[in-house]
Design brief:
73% helix; 2 domains; Arc Repressor Mutant, subunit A; Tetracycline Repressor, domain 2; mainly alpha; 10 helices
């Protein structure tokens, strides 16, 4: 392997380690609470070395959001563009979102932590990213509704809020000692509930027979 190729590979590995650490610490402590020094320590480098790959903490946060959420947004956009019945597409979309949240616990954790705090850089970054990245998904949701005056952003916020609360909220409001929201059985049951909720919100007729 050439020196140049070896250097490129090391750079890719280092950036991956930085993003792994950033995702974990941003979701656990928030944008303000996670320092570059702490992220660097977890990634195995000096905190100041992060600035070689990302010019600022804000740029690192944006890159973390991009890596964490863009695969989901891309999958949703593709799914909603398929020429199937609207209710089938929406049911599939809900299943995708719930499954993604179950498989990527840092995603709902990060959203709950940052969006629950009024103002702040992190909330502004998330809102700006959402406006830019989710525009196509919002348009697709809007086009599937029989009630065209229904705001798709409201629908999306209800859906995302419910999913985030389910995975990040109290272990169990009923006090079940062994409650695990990520267990396959409970994830499947929750997915069914969310599918029914979205169909109701969008005024889609429930298939019969």
């Amino acid at each position: 392997m050439s020196t140049e190729a070896s250097g490129t590979t090391k750079s890719v590995r280092t950036k991956g380690a930085i993003l792994d650490a950033a995702e974990e610490l941003f979701s656990a402590h928030g944008f303000d609470g996670a320092s570059l020094d702490a992220i660097g320590e977890q990634a195995g480098i000096q905190g100041t070395a992060i600035l070689y790959h990302y010019p600022s903490k804000r740029a690192l946060y944006e890159a973390t959001l991009e890596r964490l959420f863009q695969p989901l947004l891309g999958e949703l956009a593709e799914l909603l563009a398929v020429n199937d019945r609207a209710d089938d597409r929406l049911e599939a979309a809900v299943e995708v979102i719930v499954a993604y949240a179950a498989a990527h616990p840092n995603a709902p954790r990060l959203l709950v932590r940052e969006t629950a705090t009024p103002g702040g850089d992190a909330r502004q970054i998330i809102e700006a990213k959402a406006a830019a990245s989710a525009a196509g998904v919002m348009e697709a949701f809007a086009s599937h509704s029989e009630q065209h005056d229904l705001d798709p952003v409201v629908v999306a916020n209800i859906l995302v809020g419910a999913i985030c609360f389910y995975f990040v909220g109290p272990p169990s409001l009923a006090g079940a000692p062994s409650y695990d929201p990520r267990s396959p059985e409970l994830v499947e049951a929750f997915s069914l509930v969310m599918r029914d909720l979205v169909r109701s919100l969008l005024r889609l007729r429930t298939a019969t027979g």
